[in-house]
What we know:
seven-stranded antiparallel sheet
Amino acid sequence: MIRIQNLIDNPNLRVVEEKKGIKVLEYTKDLSVNPASAVNAYYCSEMNIRKRQVFIDLDNSGIIVSAGAMQWTAGSVEAKSDIRGVGDFFGKALKGSVTKESTVKPKYYGTGYVMLEPTYKHILLENVEDWEGGLVLDDGLFLACEDSVNQTVIARSNLSSAVLGNEGLFNLALKGRGVAVLESNVPRDELVEIVLQDDVVKIDGNFAVAWSGSLKFTVEKSTKSLIGSAVSGEGLVNVYRGTGRILMAPVL
């Protein structure tokens, strides 16, 4: 039996979100400071720049995490690679190169606890099944997910325009049932959620951090003609069509 003290019951820690045994812990203050860094730590705390960690309670279950994200485990927890052979390794290496995600994502399974490395980014917990057609992520957003979630790579509908717009050609898509853990530069309180019903949204730049896999995603000219685009001051925009949702950051 394992009993962990001064963690969840630590007065300097609070649970800001929890789903299915996955807790997001936030440090109220950074107490590990010295006189030289105390002032900076104080103003970071005042501006919501706080350390956050993901604490996972496994009950005969599994979690897949980004490479290097695990800090410690406790209990009957084992780790194994998600690589099933040489061919699978090269396939995942290709996927990682086009989505900017780690090639190998270790899986931790069993009964016990897994703690991920601290981060100053904001942590989002999303139920993948709540997103129509799965959850498509912008580059670098993935941190972890339950092992019941399938990871695939999807391509944009018109690759030539994506190249012209200096955008990535592929995105990581999560499908199935389970919780996904995402790292965001923007807190959830500032993320704008757009719900589409057979409609269209055009976004100038990579402000969309996640969207429904049911949406058709392309990169297009902001107007029908190149001259019109030049006059409007805009060039290529990201276009989302159909029925689904978009999480959009107001700033980059």
